[in-house]
Amino acid sequence: MDIHKDSSGALVFSGKLVASEIEGACSKVEPLLDETLHETVLDLSDVDDIDISGLQLVLAMKKAAVSDGSFRIRGASAKVREIVFLAGFDGVFEEEA
Predict the structure, then answer these.
(1) Cα 97-5-63 angle, rounded to 5 deg
(2) Closest by Cα among 59, 87, 88 to 71
(3) Per-residue model confidence as pLDDT tens digits over 28-87
């Protein structure tokens, strides 16, 4: 799992956002979230797979970001969107157009 900021300031996730990667992902996300100003954009275009642990991490990031500003997701693949829907998280995650 690679996590970095792109030139627009979006947090870009690459790889698998699954239980075995969550601990490492959390340690990478925390300092990057501290750097985001009032708008957090999460780019999932390079995420190959996501499970409930990954969804919970994204939800926690959303809750933290919304308390200080806004949160948006962009670039989720059809597979990731399907998993979000099947897990019942579709009402929680709104993807930007």
Answers:
(1) 65
(2) 59
(3) 988 887 777 678 899 999 999 999 999 999 998 888 888 878 889 999 999 999 999 999
Run of H or E residues at 33: helix 19-35
Give strand pairing partners of 45.
none
82: Cβ–Cβ under 8 A, 6 or more apart, which residues? Answer: none
Question: Rounded to an integer, what distance in angstroms lies between the CA atom of residue 75 and that of residue 73?
Answer: 7
Q: Across the strands, what pairs with 50? A: 17
Question: CA-to-CA distance for 74 and 46, rounded, in angstroms?
Answer: 11
Which residues lie closer than 8 Å to 52 by C-beta, 6 or more apart? Answer: 19, 87
pTM recorded for the entire structure: 0.86
